[in-house]
Amino acid sequence: MSAPLVRFDDALPLLAREIAATLGAEQLAAGIVLRDATGRLAFFSRNDISPVSAENLSARLRAVLGPYARPERVLVDPRATGAEAILADSRTTRVIAGEHSIRLIDRRIVGADWVRSPAPAAEGPPRFVFASLKGGVGRSTALAVAAAEVAREGHSVLVIDLDLEAPGLGSLLLSAETLPEFGTLDYLVERKVGVPDDGFVADLVGPSRVPAGGRIDVAPAFGRRSLEHPGDVLAKIGRAYLETIGPEGAVATVFDQIRELVDRLVDRARYDAILIDARAGLHETTAASVLGLGAEVFLFALDEPQSFDGYSTLLASFAQLAPPGAPLPEWADRLTPVQAKAPADPARRKEFNQRWQDLVMRVGPSRPAAELGGEIQIPEGFTEVPWDDESTPDEEVVPVDRPLMQPIAVLSDARYVAFDPLRRREQVDEKLYSATFGDLLRRVGAAVESRGEEAP
């Protein structure tokens, strides 16, 4: 019987197991695993290995990893050409591979922004990102209602649409007369040939006529030019996600470009809150919105298996940015799940909450050191932290009072199925929306009021 074919999911644990068994866990922990763009693996040792041992282990790794062994060098001695640069590379991620914690350099052609370090909390007005892994969850409607509520309280709010392939906020909140010349899509396209000037940035924003005591400004994804030239829109989208290279060779991914765009829009005027609509799914632009803007992030989900399957992937990705044993990072407390179209029955919402908490405990970011009963002792020189989920009670992984463990609800409400606040103005009447969106609005409102109290 032939050996089972190694698949992508098998390769990393197999390499870690083989290195630990042959060189020892300390050498595995000290070295770096490189996964190239095709998924093939190599181990860069920080300690010298004799030629005979290296040859034997290389042969063993090729046999174990099959197609996922890098053909030219699967085991690299620290004296080899190029090894010093890899071993000094700071862009490593600690991940769990089987029974071991390893340091990984994961080279991706697409998706690299998902392994970028999350930005610290942004200074200035509070920022809120509305994100989801599927469309049709009511994310943009909730954002528009939140904008109306912030403005009803007499504040100024900027709404930014980053859902470039399924934009909606421009048509929801702007009329033909107030639609700006350009949209966020145009900024990302123009950014490929230079840095747009301040006048161009000003032309990205238009005022909404949705009733408000304060002010709602909107930076739509599509501006007037795109609506006048719809045949060019796909050509623009095809270029919006490209990297740019500065005059001194600095590379700016879409992550960097979106962060730059949002910072410039926020700097234009004094706003009390910034509400950002992220693209649905796990696209590169979603990484920029969720990780790169220093924002509070609302993660919208329906109570259905597809939502939990998708968030399993996203939460596991977050966990790789918050390694087990380390204190729970500050950014993790800026993630709040939202049960969208939730039932009015509290018992049914409680069932969703329990499933969400189970998911976070199973795959999500790790618990803080304080809850571990003291500082984690990490072996000198690295990193090796045992993965021991059998002896750790689930309820201790992330304390249930953390925002990530406390879903809030936006209730299902047929009155918001056809949302059109410019024509159906009763939909942005506080008397109508307060019961449906109350939890969400209180969360946004509290942050805005807190910011107002801090401002000089």
Automatic annotation (TrEMBL):
Annotated InterPro entries: P-loop_NTPase (IPR027417), ParA/MinD_ATPase (IPR050625)
UniProt keywords, alphabetically: ATP-binding, Nucleotide-binding
KW Zinc (keyword) present: no
Keyword RNA-binding: no
PANTHER family recorded: SEPTUM SITE-DETERMINING PROTEIN MIND HOMOLOG, CHLOROPLASTIC, SEPTUM SITE-DETERMINING PROTEIN MIND HOMOLOG, CHLOROPLASTIC-RELATED
Protein name according to UniProt: CobQ/CobB/MinD/ParA nucleotide binding domain-containing protein
Species of provenance: Anaeromyxobacter paludicola
